[in-house]
């Protein structure tokens, strides 16, 4: 019985340490990620418009899908901030729109920087502060971004091969983590967060 009581109090202590301990670095990173992902969402929406203006309506759907998926990332960061009692800052996106091919190359570089440097650092710092939920959100964003290069590479190849008229026009977005799939090879459950395919949102 004594042992059970001890375990009970240890569990209470652990839970309260996780929820009440100040998490300054995690809060700073969640704010930065929220801002980053909302700005990126606006940028990809502008890329979609540019691609449409260049007569590649099918490729524009990819940028449009990425723009929406980034809003899921931003929503998840805002949600974590609210759980920690913090209101996110407002944003005013500033970005540059180039040609579609340059935008695609920028997207590859940009996403690669996020999953190789920025988000691994955020995950590490969240772990140190025992902010497990925030760490999970950062992990989802990092892993989801790793999978995105495939779409950009396919799009670049279609421009080079002059086959943009036959490019994909439909994608599936996981509403929980923001991962994107081609419908033809979407898994039964999201490979990043485990959400059932039935809940994926079609975009296109
Ligand atoms: Zn998911």
Textual characterization of the structure:
With 204 residues, the protein is mainly alpha-helical. Helices cover 65% and strands 4% of the residues. The protein contains six helices and three strands. It has helices spanning 2-20, 24-53, 57-83, 100-128, 132-146, 149-160; strands at 171-173, 180-181, 201-203. The protein has a three-stranded antiparallel β-sheet with strand order 2-1-3, covered by helices on one side. A hairpin with a 6-residue loop joins strand 1 (171-173) and strand 2. Helix 2 runs antiparallel to helix 3 (57-83) and helix 2 (24-53) packs antiparallel against helix 4. The radius of gyration is 19 Å and the shape is globular. Mean pLDDT is 92; it is low at 13-18. Zinc ion (ZN) is lined by residues 174, 176-177, 179, 190, 192-193, 195.
């Amino acid at each position: 019985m004594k042992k059970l009581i001890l375990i009970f109090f240890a569990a209470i202590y652990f839970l309260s340490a996780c929820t009440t301990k100040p998490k300054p670095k995690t809060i700073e990173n969640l704010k930065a990620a929220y801002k980053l992902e909302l700005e990126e969402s606006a940028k990809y929406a502008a890329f979609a418009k540019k691609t449409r203006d260049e007569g590649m309506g099918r490729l524009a759907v990819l940028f449009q899908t990425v723009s929406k998926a980034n809003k899921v990332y931003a929503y998840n960061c805002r949600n974590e901030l609210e759980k920690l009692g913090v209101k996110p800052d407002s944003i005013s996106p500033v970005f540059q729109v180039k040609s579609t091919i340059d935008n695609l190359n920028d997207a590859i570089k940009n996403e690669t920087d996020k999953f190789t440097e920025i988000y691994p650092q955020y995950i590490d710092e969240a772990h140190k502060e025992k902010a497990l939920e925030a760490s999970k959100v950062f992990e989802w964003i990092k892993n989801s971004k790793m999978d995105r290069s495939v779409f950009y590479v396919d799009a670049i190849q279609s421009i080079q091969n002059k086959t943009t008229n036959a490019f994909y026009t439909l994608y599936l977005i996981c509403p929980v983590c923001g991962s994107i799939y081609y419908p033809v090879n979407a898994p039964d459950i999201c490979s990043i967060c485990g959400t059932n395919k039935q809940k994926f949102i079609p975009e296109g």
